[in-house]
């Protein structure tokens, strides 16, 4: 049974950095598409950063390119999202997700297993 659990969210000042983590179990990160998504109040869930391509190259939303970095520690079944130069518009609940089929996509509809989310608030 696939399980994902996020941690590391909190309150960050604009321009600051935060690293959030996702502990996974029940599957091998080498063989699954994985990603980070976020949902702000009143908005749809959107893809932020995913690894779902045959060569493992990441896909980033335009709004976070150059600021966010997705990484994995396969030995410890962890997924990370390093967030730098944070902006108030980055405020959202952040979710990690996985799917056994890699579709070269960072669309939420292409991911079947989800964590419970962690709140990231960017505010002074």
Please give a structural write-up.
The chain contains no helices and eleven strands. It is globular and about 40 Å long. The strands form two sheets. Strands 2, 4, 5, 6, 9, 10 and 11 form a seven-stranded mixed beta sheet that branches. Strands 1-3-8-7 form a four-stranded antiparallel beta sheet, with no helix packed on it. The protein has strands spanning 3-7, 10-12, 18-25, 33-39, 46-51, 58-60, 68-73, 78-83, 92-99, 113-114, 118-122. With 124 residues, it is mostly beta strands.
Please outline what is shown here.
The protein has no helices and eleven strands.
Average residue-wise pLDDT: 96
Low-confidence stretches: none
**Alpha-beta classification:** mainly beta
Helical content band: under 10%
> Would you report the number of β strands?
11
> What proportion strand?
over 45%
Question: Describe the biggest sheet?
Answer: 7 strands, mixed
Rg, alpha carbons: 13 Å
Cα(first) to Cα(last) distance is 40 Å
SSE order, one letter for each helix or strand: EEEEEEEEEEE
The 3D shape can be described as globular
- What is the tally of helical segments? 0
């Amino acid at each position: 049974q696939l399980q994902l659990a996020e941690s590391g969210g909190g309150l960050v000042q604009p321009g600051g950095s935060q690293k959030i983590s996702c502990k996974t179990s029940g599957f091998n990160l080498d063989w699954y598409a994985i990603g980070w998504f976020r949902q702000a109040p009143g908005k749809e869930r959107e893809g932020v950063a995913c690894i779902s391509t045959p060569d493992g190259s990441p896909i980033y939303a335009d709004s976070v390119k150059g600021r966010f970095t997705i990484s994995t520690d396969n030995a410890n079944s962890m997924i990370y999202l390093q967030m730098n130069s944070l902006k108030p518009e980055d405020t959202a609940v952040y979710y990690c997700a996985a799917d056994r089929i890699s579709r070269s996509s960072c669309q939420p509809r292409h991911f079947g297993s989800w964590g419970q989310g962690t709140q990231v608030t960017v505010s002074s």
